[in-house]
Design brief:
This protein is of the alpha/beta class. It is 54% helix and 12% strand. Strands 1-2-3-4-5-6-7-8 form an eight-stranded parallel beta sheet.
Length: 347
C-alpha cells in the first residue's frame, strides 16, 4: 500500500466499536504490569520474552487462555488506569476519534471472589482508575470513549446478572457507561438465558450488544436478535443463512466485524475468506474493528489497510466503512452528523 493511502487511512476519522480493553495490552505493558503484581503473590515477574510467548496460540481456546493470563495481571485501579491510558494513545495514533470499549467486568468478579468479598467496592475503585484514564485521554488526545460492561456469558447467568445490575446502578453516576454485552465462549452459553436481564438493562437506559456467530452458527445470531440485541459482534456465520443476511440488511443491524481476529482464532481461514465484502455489497451495516489488537497483531488502522488490499475497498469504500462506524455508534445524533461531515471532507 502506498504511503499516500496509509496517510489517507490515518487521517480518516474512525470510531472503533468492538475493542476489549484487556486485548489492547501489548507484551511490554504486560511485562510492566507483571513487575508490579506478580511479586506480591510470590511469583517472578514475566520477562518480555515470556510475555510475548503468551500471545502465541493457534485456536480460540488458546486465545481464551492467553486473555486470562493478561487479565490476572490487572489487579487494581493503577493497573487499569495505565492500560486504559495507553489504549487511548494507541487509538489516537491511528486516527480513531471515538471508541466504545468492552471491560471484562465478569472476569473481575468471577476470578476474584475472595478479594471482592473482602472489599465490596473493589470494582468501583477499579472503574475510578479507568475513568481517570478516559478523562486524561480525552484531554491529551481528543479521543472520546464509552464503556460497555461485558458479563462474559460462560461464567453463568447469576454472574451476568450481577454485572448487568452493576452497570445499571453505576450508570447513574457515570454516563460514560453506555451499554452491556455478552462476550466469552458462545459454545458454552447461548443468548436465550439472558433475555430477562437484557430487558432490565434496556429499561435502565443501557444499550445492548452481543457477541454472536463467532464460534457458532447462524441460529446463534437469530437468538441474539430475538432477545433485543441492538449491535452484534462478529456475526461471521450469518453468511451461511441467506434469510438472515436479508434480515440484517433490512433492519440495518450494526455488525462489529473483526476479520483478523477471526483468522487468528481459527474460526475463519483467511482475511480473503471473510464475508466483509459480501456483507458490504449486500447493504449490511458493517463496521471494521480490531477486537484484541495486541493479541491479533492488527490494530484497526491495519484492518482498513487489509480491506483495501484484499477486499478491494477503494477510498470511497473506506470512507463508507468509517461513516458506518459512526452511524452504528451510541454517540448522540449531533456528534454523528459532525463526524460524517468531517469524513466527507477528507481528501
Amino acid at each position: 500500500m502506498s504511503d499516500d493511502l496509509s496517510s489517507f487511512i490515518r487521517r480518516l476519522p474512525k470510531a472503533e466499536l468492538h475493542l476489549h480493553l484487556e486485548g489492547t495490552i501489548e507484551p511490554a505493558t504486560l511485562a510492566e504490569l507483571s513487575e508490579r503484581v506478580d511479586a506480591g503473590f510470590g511469583a517472578a515477574p514475566l520477562t518480555l520474552a515470556e510475555a510475548e510467548a503468551l500471545y502465541q496460540y493457534t485456536d480460540f481456546s488458546g486465545f481464551m487462555l492467553a486473555f486470562k493470563a493478561v487479565t490476572r495481571r490487572l489487579r487494581g485501579p493503577e493497573e487499569y488506569e495505565l492500560a486504559g491510558y495507553r489504549m487511548i494513545g494507541q487509538l489516537a495514533a491511528q486516527g480513531v476519534v471515538h471508541a466504545e470499549v468492552y471491560i471484562s467486568v465478569g472476569v473481575v468478579y468471577f476470578w476474584r471472589k475472595e478479594e471482592d468479598a473482602a472489599d465490596p467496592l473493589l470494582f468501583e475503585k477499579i472503574f475510578a482508575g479507568l475513568e481517570r484514564a478516559r478523562e486524561r485521554g480525552e484531554r491529551d488526545y481528543g479521543v472520546t470513549l464509552y464503556w460497555i460492561f461485558d458479563a462474559v456469558r460462560h461464567f453463568s447467568v447469576p454472574e451476568a446478572r450481577r454485572v448487568f445490575r452493576l452497570a445499571a446502578r453505576m450508570r447513574q453516576e457515570y454516563p460514560s457507561i453506555i451499554g452491556i454485552g455478552l462476550g466469552g465462549d458462545e459454545r458454552v452459553a447461548a443468548s436465550e438465558p439472558f433475555r430477562e436481564m437484557y430487558a432490565e438493562a434496556a429499561a435502565a437506559g443501557l444499550r445492548l450488544t452481543n457477541h454472536a456467530g463467532e464460534t457458532t452458527g447462524p441460529e446463534a445470531i437469530w437468538e441474539a436478535l430475538s432477545i433485543g440485541s441492538e449491535r452484534l459482534g462478529h456475526a461471521l456465520s450469518a453468511i451461511r443463512d441467506p434469510e438472515l443476511v436479508a434480515e440484517l440488511a433490512r433492519r440495518q443491524i450494526p455488525l462489529e466485524l473483526n476479520p483478523s481476529s477471526n483468522v487468528r482464532t481459527g474460526v475463519c481461514p483467511s482475511f480473503a475468506a471473510h464475508p466483509l465484502r459480501e456483507y458490504f455489497d449486500r447493504g449490511l451495516m458493517v463496521t471494521l474493528n480490531s477486537d484484541d489488537p495486541a493479541f491479533f497483531g492488527s490494530p484497526v488502522e491495519n484492518e482498513y489497510r487489509l480491506a483495501h488490499e484484499i477486499h478491494g475497498f477503494d477510498r470511497s469504500g473506506l470512507k463508507a466503512l468509517a461513516k458506518n462506524s459512526f452511524r452504528a455508534s451510541f454517540l448522540p445524533e449531533s456528534a454523528k452528523q459532525d463526524w460524517l461531515s468531517r469524513i466527507e471532507s477528507v481528501m
